[in-house]
Please model this.
Amino acid sequence: MSHTLITRNEIEDLCEGELQSKFYAIMNDLIRTQRWQAERTMALASLETVEAELHRKRALKSRLPAPRC
Model:
């Protein structure tokens, strides 16, 4: 899979379930692309972005109502 970088702006409106789904899809991409360094670099950067957004959403969860999926 050709991977493009995922930015926070693209995912900030996703709910936790959608973020988790994206996280696991990227993890699967990493497993499949072990031999292609450029694709792995983009997937790793995207994975960090999705993970950071998941953490941000969880931290805000107690203060703000959760968006509906």
